[in-house]
Amino acid sequence: MRRVLVTGGAGFIGSNFVHHLVDHTDATVTVLDKLTYAASRESIAGLPEDRVALVVGDIADAAVVDPLVAENDLVVHFAAESHNDNSLSDPEPFVRTNVLGTFALLEAARKHGARFHHVSTDEVYGDLELDDPERFTETTPYNPSSPYSSTKAGSDLLVRAWVRSFGVQATISNCSNNYGPWQHVEKFIPRQVTNVIDGGRPKLYGAGLNVRDWIHADDHSSAVWTIANDGRIGDTYLIGADGEKNNLEVVRMILAHFGRDEDDFEHVTDRAGHDLRYAIDSTKLRTELGWKPQYADFAEGLGRTIEWYVEHQDWWRPHKAAIEAAYAAKGQ
Ligand code: NAD
Ligand code: TDX
User: Fold this and answer.
1) Is 326 within the bounds of a domain?
2) CATH number of the domain where residue 8 is located
3) pLDDT digits over 79-124, tens only?
4) Is residue 282, in this structure, part of any structural domain at all?
5) How far is the CA of 187 from the centre of ligand 2 (A)?
6) In what residue span(s) does the NAD(P)-binding domain sit (predicted)?
7) ipTM, 2 dp
8) In a mutational test of the pocket of ligand 2, which residue from 212, 214, 238 has the highest number of ligand atoms less than 8 Å from its CB?
9) What average pLDDT does this structure show over 192-202?
10) For the chain, what is the domain count?
11) 296 inside domain
12) Which of 7, 31, 35, 36 to mutate to test the pocket of ligand 1 (most atoms within 8 A of CB)?
């Protein structure tokens, strides 16, 4: 696994994974990223030039993908359109990148015999009731709700079929909600933190009782590397850190961090089709591959993430006004 192609390596989690490879392995890394609005060159700036190269290109372009897959031993596929709200406004790029992009990569992996790891989401399983005693496992039936999650589900199923039909050497991981540095201000935690930094109020969709199962991006990266090295070909592994919290609880933790009143937030228009609860049972990954998260305490990880946004206003501020204007136009 010395030469690793990381798609979407200039995004939130992909860039975290590139840092993980530089810090914890001797791999050389090629990032393939289209540099969409969600990417950030700064997130992978300053890394050793003899270890990390950036190729700007589209994963759905076979002419770009084919030679890059040929040159590498392992493909770790993060690139995606990733935001549910955007998928409700305009699903087309989600189908193109998430489905056709994954298809182009799989065809190249098939041709060149590359090991392939596909990064996916727990949202492919749909949602749970708040009081459901079961959590998602590797055998939970697929039941995606949104254009985003349905295109991720489609991409997962392509990977499974390419393993079975063509013998592609692939693994899949489905992870819960990530938080940490470099997450785009469109997403829940960065949006609320930056609202409060700006003296505004957090915006909760609906009643704020929807539950997400939070994991730090560092822990997602270590899990992906573990699975890419030690996972069983054709298998799926769920990644989670037992971090269930409802959105109202998270907003109150953010307000408390800044010494603001715990009720100083607004309820805004709910997301259409809003999934109620995600929850991951990561027993298989922990028992079979010996992985465990480093961030056991969400409050501590959240506090460090909040401070990162306080200290990196130059990075997020240029994007903030346009994102808020787009949300405001939807009553959110
Ligand atoms: P992100 O939106 O921050 O980054 C996505 C990256 O992919 C960007 O750098 C973007 O430029 C790139 N990209 C988009 N379309 C491309 C294309 N056609 N060709 C090449 N590059 C393209 O996303 P993220 O939150 O870092 O998510 C990364 C992966 O992890 C996704 O596959 C997502 O489904 C999965 N995931 C995310 C979470 C989460 O909480 N964020 C949880 C589970 C799984
Ligand atoms: O302003 C907001 N207010 C609010 O209440 C925003 C932006 C979100 N929310 C709610 C919606 C969700 O219940 O917060 C929760 C988290 O929202 P997002 O950050 O948009 O994440 P989610 O839709 O849960 O999806 C995320 O986790 C799974 C990632 O964006 C996906 O890429 C990943 O697959």
Assistant:
1) no
2) 3.40.50.720
3) 999 999 999 999 999 999 999 999 999 999 999 999 999 999 999 9
4) no
5) 6
6) 5-301
7) 0.99
8) 212
9) 98
10) 1
11) no
12) 36
Residue of 97, 121, 107, 111 lying closest to 7 (CA atoms):
97
Identify the domain containing residue 34 by its residue range.
3-178+215-239
Query: What string of H, E and C letters represents the secondary structure of the chain?
Result: CCEEEEECCCCHHHHHHHHHHHHHCCCEEEEEECCCCCCCHHHHCCCCCCCEEEEECCCCCHHHHHHHHHHCCEEEECCCCCCHHHHHHCCHHHHHHHHHHHHHHHHHHHHHCCEEEEEEEHHHHCCCCCCCCCCECCCCCCCCCCHHHHHHHHHHHHHHHHHHHHCCCEEEEEECCEECCCCCCCCHHHHHHHHHHCCCCCEEECCCCCEEECEEHHHHHHHHHHHHHHCCCCCEEEECCCCEEEHHHHHHHHHHHCCCCCCCCEEECCCCCCCCECCECCHHHHHHHCCCCCCCCHHHHHHHHHHHHHHCHHHHHHHHHHHHHHHHHCCC
Whether residue 168 is contained in a domain is answered as yes
CA of 258 to the centre of ligand 1 (A): 30
